[in-house]
Amino acid sequence: MVYRVTPDGVLHVTAPTPTDAAVATYTGRDLLISANRRSRERQPNRWMVTGSPKIDASEREAGEEPEEIKWAAVVDNWTDPRYRADTYGVVTSSNTMDVAESEDQIREAAETYMASSLAASEARSLQIVTDPRLELGDVVDVRVTHLNSSESLRGRVTGYSMTLDDPAQVMRVDIEIQDGR
Questions:
Q1: pLDDT digits over 76-123, tens only?
Q2: E strands, the chain, in order
Q3: CA 154, CA 20: separation in Å to the nearest integer?
Q4: Are the C-beta atoms of residues 134 and 172 closer than 8 Å to each other?
Q5: Tens of pLDDT along 11-60?
Q6: With 0-12 CB in 10 A as exposed, 13-18 as middle and 19+ as buried, what is 47?
């Protein structure tokens, strides 16, 4: 749910707009004036979790070595074309979980790490020609060309600033980009 309080103090609760369809597309050939390039650390496309059950010292007999039980789970996101192993390489996030009670818990932990990593978002600020059609919560596509590379973004509008008395001024649009979409 999206929560928003308007200047008159009214709370609006609405379902978020699905991100599968954008309401507007901006490129350097039309309304987009500038979008700063943002460098990012390489995101993992494989998550590995290893673990073992917690063994209480009172359960061990004196002088006896405890039986070592280890579990491991590996999940990947190679179906997403941005993170395919043949073009992106393999970037592994490795974690341990030493309080697991089963191998299923280790797998669930790996899937949770993957989901939270893919849902990570970033905020970007754009400058466009004033476009009064935009509203908070709208989903927009942005295609930016930087020298020899291009970047495609899809994000939800989280804020904007525009002057209504001078249409020659630029409009600042803040969008939140979610990797997991």
A1: 988 877 788 888 889 999 998 888 888 899 999 999 988 888 776 678
A2: 2-5, 11-14, 24-27, 32-35, 46-51, 71-76, 92-97, 121-129, 139-146, 149-161, 170-178
A3: 9
A4: no
A5: 878 777 676 778 888 887 777 887 766 656 778 899 999 988 776 666 55
A6: buried
Cα 140 to Cα 25, 49, 64, 152: the distances in Å are 6, 36, 63, 11
Q: What are phi and psi of 69, to 5 degrees?
A: -110, 125
Return the half-sphere exposure (C-beta side, CA atoms, 13 A cut-off) of residue 176.
Answer: 16
- CA distances to 57, 58, 63, 122, 173 from 158, rounded to whole Å, are 52, 54, 61, 11, 8
The span from the CA of 146 to the CA of 88, in Å, is 20
User: What pLDDT score was predicted for residue 69?
Assistant: 65
